[in-house]
Amino acid sequence: WSEMAGKRGALIVLEGVDRAGKTTQCSKLVQALQQSGRPAEMMRFPDRTTTIGQLIGAYLENKSDLEDHTVHLLFSANRWEMVPLMKKKLEQGITLVVDRYAFSGVAFTSAKPGFRLDWCMQPDVGLPKPDLVMFLQLNPAEAALRGQFGQERYETSVFQRTVQQRFEQLMKDQTVNWQVIDAAQNIENVHKDITAHSLNAINKAQNLPLGELWS
Ligand code: TMP
Ligand code: MG
Questions:
Q1: By alpha-carbon position, which residue is closest to atom 2 of ligand 1?
Q2: Which of 53, 31, 28 is CA-nearest to residue 40?
Q3: Is 130 in the pocket of ligand 1 (CB under 6 A)?
Q4: Could you read off the pLDDT of 108-166 as tens digits, one per residue?
Q5: Measured from the CB, is residue 103 less than 6 Å from ligand 1?
Q6: Looking at ligand 1, which atom is closest to the CA of residue 48?
Q7: If DSSP states are collapsed to H, E and C, what string results for 47-77?
Q8: Nearest CA to 82 among 56, 101, 69, 67?
Q9: How large is the ipTM?
């Protein structure tokens, strides 16, 4: 990107347990950025449209079973296969707003018995490093008020509680720009918080090279 005259876009990630409002907030953020004249696009992981993503989708919908290490590596591969496109867009000055990333990858797999955090992190080492990761914080009681879980794998309150603990471990990492957002607020106030952090990150990222995650 350094040869380019223009400023790069920022890589912004939203994380959180299920029903925290990630998808809603990602689209509201992209819309707000675009309306203020800042090029922005949304991405999501898993991206179920690719060949690898279809394997993941079938697994999540309980239509297939995959060995736990294997599916972890497929989630990671599903991010790596998008890296050339992500870098190209960032270089073009487009800010990417991403619904889940490697942090979900680590939090969900390491919530399974027998998986260590460091083993889970390894395949994602070197991915484009987010300029900002916002964790939408919602306690289980508030999440329960938002309705029942769906039918997909991992959508049980016992598992999600362990996932939350793993996210808390990941948030201790000072090399990542974590910001905790109170997702119990109404949609507009959550959006305001997210927009403020994002504008700050976009301004800073313009003059910095894209980093490598966990390396
Ligand atoms: P979604 O509901 O946002 O489409 O995510 C699908 C599920 O996949 C969700 O329960 C979180 C889980 N997941 C992983 O287990 N590993 C990953 O790397 C990612 C991105 C998601
Ligand atoms: Mg889901």
A1: 18
A2: 31
A3: no
A4: 999 999 999 999 999 999 999 999 999 999 987 788 788 888 889 999 989 999 999 99
A5: no
A6: 4
A7: CCCCHHHHHHHHHHCCCCCCCHHHHHHHHHH
A8: 101
A9: 0.98
